[in-house]
Amino acid sequence: MRFYSLIACENIVPSARLKITATIITLNEAEHIRLACESVSWADEIVVVDSGSTDDTREIARACGARVIENAWPGFAAQKQFAAEQASNDWIFSLDADERVSDQLRTSIVSLRELDEKRLVDGYSIARRAFYMGRWIRGGGWYPDRQLRLYKKTRGHWEGPHIHESVILDHGDHVAELSGDILHYPGSDAAEHHRLIGERYAPLGARQMFERGRRTSPLKIALIGPATFARSFILHGGFRDGLAGFSIARFAAHHAFLKYLMLWELQNGAKQ
């Protein structure tokens, strides 16, 4: 994929050339879904795919004008792909329930509607900024964390067997960078962050590595934690974020250690 840059234009009145469906997948997101929907109110359509919420997620989404579809949970990538397939429009903007569109990003997306179709590329990558421990994070490898979130659905699809799902465009397709950020509000405290690593991210990450043929050793398990901490806190500038940056680096080290330890268990279980 080739990458280009795009500078946002301001004070542009949107035309009808480019129609966009915003997609959001949910499970018990009553706390977040209203603000998520409101932040994509500029979209021509909002599709919310819910996997069995027991709170008011679906009712709130419908009240915000979203088309709500229920679908049993097939995994992150598969659910986001399902959501894209339900869209009425050719262009997809994918947002998570705990994310918001910044004003600058909204202006950038609206500006695309003034472009001739020949000047549009196949997808647009967007920086994501996280709000963690009461501050916007600048380092630790968490920013700019660019992700392909706006794309033509006939040119791309979601992949990722377990975690770290992403949009993959067809070979040779072009990608441009949009100015503005997706604002991420993970909302987890230290205990929740620790629990998610142990119950979701580390085991899923280990399973994904194992299925891709990755293997580890006791030496790598011993070194991966300190190396990950140094990369996050020093090389990626996590020290600039103070205690939040230290916490991010420390959790990243724990995540890496646990993931590789679980990979060791998987590969030895397979041998037995």
What would you note in describing this structure?
The protein has 272 residues and is an alpha/beta fold. It has two domains: 2-184, Alpha-Beta Complex (Spore Coat Polysaccharide Biosynthesis Protein SpsA, Chain A), CATH 3.90.550; 190-271, no CATH class. Helix content is 38%, strand content 24%. Strands 1, 2, 3, 4, 5, 6, 7, 8, 9 and 12 form a ten-stranded mixed beta sheet that branches. Strand 3, helix 2 and strand 4 (67-70) form a beta-alpha-beta unit. Helix 5 packs parallel to helix 7 and helix 6 (218-235) packs antiparallel against helix 7 (242-271). The radius of gyration is 20 Å and the shape is globular. The relative contact order is 0.14. The model is unreliable at 1-15 (pLDDT under 50).
